[in-house]
Amino acid sequence: METKFQLKFVKLDKDIEQCWEITLLLRPNLNKKKWLATVYGMIKNQNYKIAAIFDHDSIIAFAAFREMTSLRAGNIIYIDDLCTLESYRSSGLTTLLLDHINSMAIADHKDAVVLDTGFSNATAHKLYLNHGFKLLAFHLAYRIKL
Question: What kind of fold does domain 5-116 have according to CATH?
Answer without folding.
Answer: Aminopeptidase (3.40.630)
